[in-house]
Amino acid sequence: MTAPGGAATRPDLALASRDAGLRGWSPQRMWSVAGAVVLVALVWGFYAWDGAQTTAVLGGTVRAATLLVLGAMCGMIGERSGIVNIGIEGQFLMSAFTAFTVASMSGSLFLGVVAGVSTGLAMGWMLAAMSVGLRTDQIIAGTVLNIAALGLTSFFYDRGRSLGQPKYQSIELGPLADLPVVGTALFNRPPLTYLALVLVVVLHVLLLRSVWGMRTTAIGEHPGAAATVGIDVIRLRYWNVTLAGGLAGLGGAYLALESVGTFTRAMSGGRGFLALAVMIFGRRTPLGAYAAALFFGFTTALQGQFQLNDTFDIPAQFVGMLPFVVTIIVVAAAGLFGRMRDPAALGQPYEVR
Amino acid sequence: MAAAAETVVSQAEPEVLLAGHGITKRFGPVVANDDVSVELRPGRILALLGENGAGKSTLVNVLFGLHRPDAGQVVIADENVELSSPHDAIARGVGMVHQHFQLVPPMSVVRNIVLGAEPRKLGMIDVAQARRRVMDLADRFGLHVDPDAAVEDLPVGAQQRVEILKALYRDARVLIADEPTAVLTPQETDHLLGVLRGLTAQGVGIVFITHKLREVMAAADDIVVLREGKVVGTTTPAQTSEAALAELMVGRAVDLHGDRFESGATGVGSAVSTTAAPSDEAPIAEAGERPVVLDIAGLCTDDDRGQRAVDELSLTVRAGEIVGVAGVEGNGQRELVEAITGLRHATAGTVSISDRDASGARPRQVTVIGVGHIPEDRAKHGLIGSYSVADNSVLNRYFKRPFAAGGMLRRDRIDSHARDVVATFDVRTPDVESPADSLSGGNKQKLIVGREFSDEIDLLIAAQPTRGIDIGAIEFIWRRIRERRDEGTAVLLVSAELDEVLALSDRVAVMYEGRIVATVDPRSATREEIGLLMAGAAPGAAGGS
To answer: Is residue B417 part of a domain?
Structure first.
């Protein structure tokens, strides 16, 4: 069973299982740390060179990353449980629509967020019903969500409607906001961004340390084994996929009420799919996903800044391709050093014997 | 240790730990268990013996709450119980050591053991407590494992100890072990039997499912033999013999070991009895003059995870000899077979078949130059389950005359060929149009053997040719392989069953970590020596003992 000479390890699980702390650093870890150091040095350099523009790019980075990491966390809870969720795009869009509509009609942003999260939960439940309950092909189930969301939101889209009030505004976190470089980018943000950051940390601890997280891993790796020790695989998958939908719902609300401040047709713009790439990059851990989301967010923000400044004398559409070109390059490069193993039961419906 | 033993004794000792009375279980028209009664008492090992399909697994699944019996009563600790799921059985102190380990490979040993019954602190796993409890159990029962290792990094024997610890962690008084020795080396098997014996000393009762007679005779206190869903014998090792048990199991006299060389009356080693002195080397010398058919030199290949699986392996097989590759599964045997048959890319080395270079040949080319292949996984690689028996009977040759002409299949010829195969190889099927999936394991395997044998072949690669099939079919396939050998075909046999390797081979090559560590003569080597080699002992150490 076990081949001699070592086995492919999953760093996230190894970390989780070896509670004695860090052991030897893996090449991946060394690369990540080296990359982070270079990045910090670069950012610092640019900040010294042009503070205002660097702050703008960093702010844009965090803004784009928040949506991505919420989607990625939705995806990773599902995938760790063994369920592929490619319906995040649809969950974003539908939640953005209801969040915007409810906020606009009620005049309360908070009610809008509640509506968005509820919509995400409902769509998560629908995905669970299809892929866990009815054992539909998971790719098809996710596609159904995406198409339904696009169709429904386009049909009910009301061009004349506006939010009728300002979107969520930034809140300064006291002296932290005055820190150089990262002060504005991280500590002078609107409320949902802070909430997302807290969720990243909380979910990270829960997934790697809690009983729930361990059971979730078990049903995604070997549901049969989990079932023999009394874990209700179907029930836990239902719960996980449904609750994860709430995170995507929060992402939708964030998009409509905090990031953009209105709803437009197909406004999720493929970022639900990008969130899946972020999830895989982040090795299905929330902190890892946030780092990946910041990276993708950075390319998005940079591209925006280039367009604003007319840095390159080429059509804007080409500059706009930057995040996607970088995605392709990075995904290809990531394949070169250390591929990550998927949960063993990913995509496989579980049937009670 | 003393304190632990006391706790066991201080509990009220039930007279019967686990029993089934008159258990009947039907699946559709099939009666899997027919009025079966068994009884396990504290401190005893009950062996359930029977062929595949005899109803052993059904019986324990009923006792463990996986199946509901149609009739009969399950008793746990002197109480009549109705089990609606395994959790009811677990809650009453019945634990199962599954044949396919129910472990989560990337998780640590401790986490696997406590999964589902975790000590917790504020919703988090109380790692310190979990670890301490696992270590206590391991010490108490002498089941040593590294608590922090990931299960996937452990050898199979250690994984099995984790399975046992998992049951004991849930306070099992009864352990049901389903074919626990199937994946172990002889040494690991001995160790396991010792562990089980140690458990009985602490009052645990064990139900031990197997089809290996030697283990039953060595380890069991009570033996129940099942055949076709019925109890055909209840006995003890003292009152019976291996031969008598085999006859009970199969329902007629069988001879698996005695004809090791007898059937080769015209072949290699015809003059050599099993007791011949090693000095009688005549047949070996004779074999030396036969042409080399398979010549592997310095072969290297990687497994699916990119780890080196076959490591500069060299091996030759001559015409008219069976070379058996013995080894614990996962030591590169699968990758070796795949590399020879063109299913896997070799990273270095050469393979030549009948003096033709077959390195890097595609599977079709390997087939065409006269190689028959009985693949390890018959359902996955041997047959196409949804295709008919007829189509499966020509999978290796459908593109050639007489089965195809001008790009069209000749149905009549395929069907008549299939009927030949079915008749000659005793494949039990209603007709050749039935899907291959509808056949039993033994008949599937006979169909594959029939297909591979009905063409001219110089070399036969047989990987696990009798895995999971009944003794009757095993006998049949063994006889056919010997016949082929006697007709001059070179045979490379790869099997995890040491008994099979010993029974069939003219030479035994022992494989360990991707290399052939020794080649021994099955007539002079003992099981123990080969077992040590399989476990990685240096050849000198094994020979010297």
So the answer is: no
Candidates A3, A88, A206; CA nearest to B310 is A3
- Residue B90: its chain A contacts at CB < 8 A? 229-230
Q: What does the pLDDT average to over A309-320? A: 78
Greater model confidence, A269 or A353: A269
Q: Looking at the structure, tell me whether residues B118 and B165 fall in a common domain.
A: yes
Instruction: Count CB neighbours of A210 within 10 A.
Output: 18
Domain that holds residue B111: 94-172
CB B106 to CB A17 under 8 A? yes
Q: Where are the alpha helices (DSSP H) in B251-311?
A: 282-289
Q: How confident is the model at residue B36 (pLDDT cuts 50, 70, 90)?
A: very high
Q: Are residues B198 and B314 in the same domain?
A: no
Q: CATH number of the domain that B365 lies in?
A: 3.40.50.300
Does A1 contact B66 at a Cβ distance shorter than 8 Å?
no
Residues B459, B370, single domain; the answer is: yes
ipTM: 0.81
Residue B327 lies in a domain: yes
Mean per-residue pLDDT over chain B, rounded: 84
Distant-in-sequence, close-in-space partners of B78: CB < 8 Å, separation ≥ 6 = B14, B15, B16
Query: Crossing angle for the helix pair A51-80 and A88-106, nearest 10 degrees?
Result: 110
CATH topology for A49-160+182-336? ABC transporter involved in vitamin B12 uptake, BtuC (1.10.3470)
> What are the pLDDT digits (tens) for B113-166?
999 889 998 889 999 999 999 999 998 888 888 899 999 888 788 899 999 999
Kindly state whether residues B286 and B371 are assigned to the same domain: yes
Tell the residue number behind the tokens 């009152």, with chain if given. Answer: B239
Predicted local confidence at residue A7, as pLDDT: 39
* Phi, psi of A21, deg, nearest 5: 95, -165
* Structure confidence at residue A3 as a pLDDT band (50, 70, 90): very low
Q: Is some CB atom of chain A closer than 8 A to the CB atom of B329?
A: yes
Chain A contact for B536 (CB, 8 A cutoff): no
CA distances from B390 to A189, B89, B397 (A): 70, 46, 12
Tell whether B155 lies on the interface with A, counting CB pairs under 8 A.
yes
**Residues in CB range of A271: below 8 A, 6 or more apart:** A67, A68, A71, A89, A92
Contact B105 A228 (CB under 8 A): no
Which residues on B lie below 8 Å from A19 (Cβ)?
A: 127, 148
Res B254: pLDDT: 61
Share of chain B above pLDDT 90, in %: 38
| Inter-chain contacts counted by CB atoms under 8 A, chains A and B | 118
Q: What dihedral do alpha carbons A106, A110, A115, A120 form, nearest 10°?
A: 160
List of E strands, B228-307: 230-235, 292-302
Same domain, B310 and B459: yes
Domain boundaries, chain A: 49-160+182-336
Number of domains making up chain B = 3
Burial B152-171 (b: 16+ CB within 10 A, else e): bbbbbbbbbbbbbbbbbbbe
8 A C-beta contact, residue B201 and residue B43: yes
- pTM for the predicted model, two decimal places: 0.73
User: Tokens at residue B395, please?
Assistant: 């999978």
Residue B108 with chain A: CB contacts under 8 Å? 17-18
Provide the token pair at B228. Answer: 């076709």
Is B303 inside any structural domain? yes
Domain stops at, among B121, B140, B172: B172
Tell which of B172, B200, B223 closes a domain. Answer: B172
Which distant-in-sequence residues (6+ apart) come within 8 Å of B238 by Cβ? Answer: none
pLDDT at residue A16, rounded to an integer: 41
Q: Which residue has the tokens 């953005």?
A: A96
Q: Is residue B262 part of a domain?
A: no
Same domain, B356 and B466: yes
Find out whether B502 and B522 touch, Cβ atoms under 8 Å.
Answer: yes
